[in-house]
Design goal:
By secondary structure, the chain is an alpha/beta fold. The protein is built from 12 helices and 16 strands. The protein has 2 domains: about 240 residues, Type I PLP-dependent aspartate aminotransferase-like (Major domain) (Aspartate Aminotransferase, domain 2); about 120 residues, Aspartate Aminotransferase, domain 1 (Alpha-Beta Complex). The model has no long low-confidence stretch (mean pLDDT about 95).
Amino acid sequence: MNTTSSQPPVLMNDFKAQWQRIREDALAVVDRVGASGWLILGQEVAQFETELAKFWDLKHAVGCASGLDAIELGLRVLGIKPGDQVLTTPVSAFPTTLAIYRAGGVPVFVDVDECGLVDLDRVDQACRENPELKFFVPVHLFGFSLDLHKLAALKEKYSLKIVEDCAQAIGASFDGKVVGSVGDIAATSFYPTKNLGCMGDGGAVLTNDAALAEHMKILRDYGQSSKYHHREIGMNSRLDELQAGLMTACFLPSLAESIHRRQEIAARYRAEITNSKLTIPQAPAGADATYHLFPVFVQGNQAEFQEYLKGKDIESGIHYPIAIPDQEAMKSSPYTALDELKNARYIVNHEVSIPVHPYLKDDEVERVIEACNQWGNTV
């Protein structure tokens, strides 16, 4: 990042600071896994799955290779068939939609609400109008929880099969109920930037259904029910022993503390960023957000705001710059958009994410607040 002053930049993520904290424990994990001679689907993965399920307060966790694979595995064990329509959001990372395609489904995009979460009232209307809609992949975007009471009501009313994309929202809850506990399956990613990230790629699926968990374990390992006995056409989506060990020893024990720090920073942003040119979206009433990202909606040009922050030595990001149906890859892919997706397109054209990672120092948080409040007075 190019800077214009002697002060160090305020980073979106600080993996160097993370390494300084975990180095000793991480090297011990590398030594332990290396000495074990077992590198794939061993005791490290089993232990991590147990600890993750306990943290999440769900009965079963199954490690896999990525968040993308987690969603695909979830849809496949729920019985999706080629051509089945799957309700989902147009504002997310592209893998949410890619997983639907890989599982054989066809995405049906529903507009989002003013804070970027898929509009559950519009989902209700869509299901009422089209009884063929039986699958739903909602996303708990930015670390905000959807209204889980509404989600549960939709599931029961329309017999929806739901894979909750919780990649940005581990630890989030609504009215005391954790994300991922309403749907049949919770899918998450351990991409390094996530609140619970590893040092590479990884993911997991969680469920309270033992049969679904066992099926996902078979699917992730080439469809094997036992070695060299392939019950069905599966995939290679196995969480490495090393990554599992790192998360058990280095990241999962401090996750609650890291989330708390994110919430502290977010509370300051919400209270102290008062610039009328920046709108701070509010999580639904009753939601306890975990702030994987902290979005602001810029009343002006995104690029100009980002360049302004860059001049203040503050990194930023856009999540996401293009609505999924507008991606080039979608031109040759089947999908349905239920309306003009007005809110979605507003958000992708106005959202900028500011730093909220747990290694931020208080003076760095103050720099971000001051810069945001000065925006528009200096451009």
